[in-house]
Amino acid sequence: MFVIAELKDTITIFPWQFKQERLKCITQVLNQKFANKVVHKVGLCIALWDIQKVEDAFIFPGDGSSHSVVHFRYVVFRPFMDEILLGKIKGCSKEGVHVTLNFFDDILIPAESLQHPARFDEAEQLWVWEYVGEDEPHDLFMDIGEEIRFKVIDESFVDTSPTGPAPASADVEESEKLCPYSLTGSVSESGLGLLTWWAGT
User: Fold this and answer.
1) Cis (ω within 30 of 0) for the bond into 165?
2) pLDDT at 144
3) Per-residue pLDDT averaged across 123-151, rounded?
């Protein structure tokens, strides 16, 4: 679920920060810049692991700030494919079941990856597994807030960094909807799905 990613970035220290210890200041800047941010093709940054190297500082003409290339390692959330995770159901839609890990919400279990047969209950706005037991069929609702075990089957990165002048207001609203990192899950195997389904088995 979590990996250590090796990164590097140019860190700026402003003149009023010179009185601070250099590594402590760099650590603060790195955490402010990366914590809880998605780095494209890397994952969701959680916390700084360590600083491996700080290159020589340089100052631009007319700029009193110090600039240094810093090599560091960061704890990153990026599950591997087929990894089994435990989350909670955040909501349901015709598209599928939306899952949260509390610190990461962009997880979808699409309709075709649910236990079969399943249907979307319009009245309850919930997905239902139409489980057929030895005696009679049962409707097992996927209630919001229930713990769910799922397998990661895909990931998606979208580069949301600016590419030019600010777009029109309508386009701004659209760009804000873009999710930089999302996961696709599946519960279409035995043992996956709501924990209550398999309790005692």
Assistant:
1) no
2) 96
3) 91
- Pairing between β-strand 107-110 and β-strand 118-121 as defined by DSSP bridges: unpaired
Q: What is the pLDDT of residues 38-84, one digit of tens each?
A: 999 999 999 999 999 999 989 888 888 999 999 999 999 999 999 99
Q: Which of 8, 9, 10 is nearest to 63 (CA)?
A: 10
Domains in the chain (CATH in brackets) are 2-77 (3.30.1490.120), 84-197 (2.40.50.140)
3-state DSSP call for residue 166?
coil
Give, for 22, the enclosing helix (H) or strand (E): helix 22-34
